[in-house]
């Protein structure tokens, strides 16, 4: 993705309550090089997949709901499109000066700092919360906003620290459904093997329909 005015996304949502504090808009960035076993979103891996959206269009859409207090960058690997996400964050803040930002990443915070890439550091500087580290199936646990024990929540500004830091060890599954005209989307961090089980159920329903 070389055009600084565009972001390549798997999809976006204008309202989600399970991927960060409060009600948030979410963009699922397209492209991830890690291919973690058990990843809940393998459709986001191919950097050539997804759809290109203009930053102006996204900023206007994602800030429209007055109940939404910020934007979550999920994926895929958000830091592969760090420059575009900085531009999106700035465009959102122009419309909603109090908008907050959270990013998931497969990098650790230490790795991002050591890479010393200008766009990645600029994205870090815009974040209120970073959730770092790849999903590790062997360390699976349903923690607040995370699917495995190695993933950490960094409060990079004081904005949410007081209310949410004491809660980061909470466990439990938090999922939300969103439907468009063709697809039912599941948002949040699901339990282990959730995708396989859903595929099995969908296959059984399909067979039942064919035999009915
Ligand atoms: S880093 Fe995240 S999106 Fe990428 S493969 Fe791992 S779990 Fe999936």
What do you see in this structure?
By secondary structure, the chain is α/β, with parallel strands linked by helices. It has one domain (6-211): TIM Barrel (Alpha-Beta Barrel). It has 6 helices and 11 strands. The strands form 3 sheets. It has a 7-stranded mixed sheet. A two-stranded antiparallel ribbon has the order 7-8. Strand 1 (6-16) and strand 2 (24-29) form a beta hairpin. Helix 2 packs parallel to helix 4. The chain is globular and about 55 Å long. The chain starts with 5 loop residues before the first strand and ends with a helix. Iron/sulfur cluster is lined by residues 32, 34-36, 39, 41, 44, 75-77, 106, 134-135.
**Overall pLDDT, averaged?**
92
Radius of gyration: 17 Å
* Helix and strand pattern: EEEHEHEHHEEEEHEEH
CATH topology group = TIM Barrel
| Largest sheet, strands/sense/barrel | 7 strands, mixed
Q: What percent of residues adopt helix (DSSP H or I)?
A: 25-40%
Spans with pLDDT under 50 lasting ≥5 residues? none
Give a concise summary.
The chain has 212 residues and is an alpha/beta fold.
Topology at a glance:
Elements: E1 6-16, E2 24-29, E3 51-54, H1 55-62, E4 70-74, H2 82-95, E5 100-104, H3 109-115, H4 118-126, E6 129-132, E7 140-143, E8 146-148, E9 152-155, H5 161-164, E10 175-179, E11 184-188, H6 194-211
Parallel strand pairs: 2-4, 4-5, 5-6
Antiparallel strand pairs: 1-2, 1-3, 6-9, 7-8, 10-11
Helix pairs in contact: 1-2, 2-4
Residues 32, 34-36, 39, 41, 44, 75-77, 106, 134-135 line the site of iron/sulfur cluster.
């Amino acid at each position: 993705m070389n055009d600084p005015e565009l972001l390549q996304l798997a999809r976006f949502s204008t309202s989600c309550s399970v991927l960060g504090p409060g009600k948030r808009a979410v963009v699922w960035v397209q492209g991830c090089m890690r291919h973690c076993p058990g990843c809940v979103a393998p459709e986001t891996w191919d950097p050539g997949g997804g759809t290109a959206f203009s930053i102006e269009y996204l900023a206007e859409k994602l800030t429209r709901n007055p109940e939404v207090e910020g934007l979550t960058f999920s994926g895929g690997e958000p830091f592969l499109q760090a420059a575009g996400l900085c531009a999106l964050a700035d465009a959102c803040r122009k419309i909603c000066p109090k908008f907050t930002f959270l990013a998931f990443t497969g990098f650790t915070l230490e790795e991002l700092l050591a890479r010393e890439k200008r766009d990645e550091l600029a994205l870090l500087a815009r974040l209120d919360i970073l959730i770092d580290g790849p999903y590790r199936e062997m360390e699976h646990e349903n923690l607040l906003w995370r699917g495995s024990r190695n993933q950490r929540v960094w409060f990079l500004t004081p904005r949410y620290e007081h209310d949410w830091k004491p809660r980061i060890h909470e466990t439990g599954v938090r999922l939300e459904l969103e439907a468009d005209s063709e697809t039912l989307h599941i948002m949040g961090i699901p339990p282990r093997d959730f995708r396989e089980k859903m595929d099995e159920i969908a296959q059984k329903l399909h067979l039942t329909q064919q035999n009915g």
